[in-house]
Amino acid sequence: MNIRNxxxxxxxxxxxxxxxxSLQTAHAITVGGKNYTEQQLMAExxxxxxKSKGIDASKKAGMGSAVLRAxxxxxxxxxxxxxxxxSLITFNKVTDKLNAEETYKRVRDLDAAKGxxxxxxSKANNxxxxxxxxxxxxxxxxxxxxDLARAVKGGTNLTFASNIEFAARPDGLKPMEAAYGFEFPRxxxxxxxxxLTYQALKEKQVDIALAxxxxxxxxxxxxxxxxxxxxxxxxxxxxxxxxKDTMEANPKIAPLLNALSAKLDDATMARLNANVxxxxxxxxxxxxxxxxxxxxx
Length: 297
Known about the structure:
Elements: H1 2-25, E1 29-34, H2 37-52, E2 57-63, H3 65-73, E3 79-83, H4 84-91, H5 100-112, E4 116-118, E5 128-133, H6 134-140, H7 145-153, E6 160-162, H8 164-168, H9 173-180, E7 189-191, H10 194-202, E8 208-212, H11 217-220, E9 223-225, E10 238-243, H12 244-249, H13 253-261, H14 266-277, H15 283-293
Parallel strand pairs: 1-2, 6-7, 6-8
Antiparallel strand pairs: 3-10, 4-10, 5-8, 5-9
Helix pairs in contact: 2-15, 4-5
């Protein structure tokens, strides 16, 4: 009788342990995102895609780069779409000049030691860019960052709209100025939220603005991207990054994200961003339409 009870109790313990393991394995996936349109779109698309395949997922977008990365490393965020150049320079402190493939391989290997897995990179290279109104670019004959440096050093008064993060990044304002041998006067740099730089330039409140290369407002507002003729900015290929333990517990996720990554390039991201920022559609409806049109949903 005691043996029978013992076996019965053992069976209950095994069942409880199995349920606990199942819950641990199938815990809700937290998808992170930064605080600008493209990142919010990627977080929404990823969450919708995972949910459509029966994976419990929730979204936590609107975070700063450093905070988001720290949250992923400590397990609060399971996955998000990072830019290769950001990990290379900001998180891994590598300043070597690398091409797109070399950049990806370097961050993939360095971040593997931190329990992070870089999946397949997309062709969308969302590098930093400095933009001007086309008429001003033409009239001042400023087509590149070297042209800009010559103009500023020559005494031309040009105001620059920058977000706060770029002003402090190791791949940001000060290193860029050093690379091109010029410096904006302190009073000429106007710091503001990322999304406001485009409007400030459009409304002629500033002469130059910081932009992301895949932002749809660049062509929509007829801005000119100043050529980075010295190759200062690294490659910033948009890539899904997932915690290793999350990927191993949820083997269906990697193929899904790789399939989404394969659909993305500069023109596609610019169009999607413009749908939100110019056409004023919601993040949710733009994400859903793209996933359906791409055959992913």
